[in-house]
Amino acid sequence: MDTDIRILNCGDAAVTVELGKEISPATGKAVKNLDAVINASGKKGISETIPTFRSLTILYDPGQLSYKSIVSFIKKSVKTASEIKDTDNEKTIHEIPVCYEGEFAEDLKDVAKINGLSTEEVISIHTGTDYLIYMLGFLPGFAYLGGLDKRIETPRLETPRTKIPAGSVGIGGNQTGIYPLASPGGWRLIGKTPVLPFDKRRKDPILYKSGEYIRFKRIDKETFDKIEKEVEEGKYIHKIIKEAVRNGRS
User: Fold this and answer.
1) pLDDT value of position 3
2) Model-level pTM?
3) What are the two backbone dihedrals, phi and then psi, of residue 158, each rounded to the nearest 5 degrees?
4) Cα(184)–Cα(174) distance, rounded to whole angstroms?
């Protein structure tokens, strides 16, 4: 077993498998593969798996599985996952329309000023990357994304806002993301999407999954209002792109 892999006991009903020391696409792929192997096994006694940036937590029933048996199963699963050949030459991209105007972009000018850029440059850079979804957490549908261009990395606000509207798109340090629900937060707001990352009315309430990608697309206020109405009426068709993996935009 890889020396970077550690199996940690998390009480009497959970185990965490650390698959690397760094956050990277390779570690993310290892987490995704192990998660897939364990879920495909149908192993009795395992109730849930929770993927993160570089680890996978497995929840199990100690009445059905002993700690020794779950560790043995995990070691075999890690070996199986490591033997999976990377034949995934296609990525799933969720196109998220964002309006970078007016009240939606309260901190856009500050992000530009801090980084010595114009607001147009910030928008161009922000929409010029496909962001890998490493994990979901914090709030239902909140995607932790990798790939933010260093040119627009910006420190969080010194004093977080007590309420940020759902759909707000922000930058916090070396990350960008979408607030799926209204909540407190300290990220700098640069835009807003009319699309709902989390909507309990949908069959699958969360719009995307870890291992997929998000691509932000710039829209104007008129288009925002149109899409927002379609979302409210349940008529909006979310755009999903299947694209070959290649160097450059990824």
Assistant:
1) 54
2) 0.84
3) -65, -35
4) 19
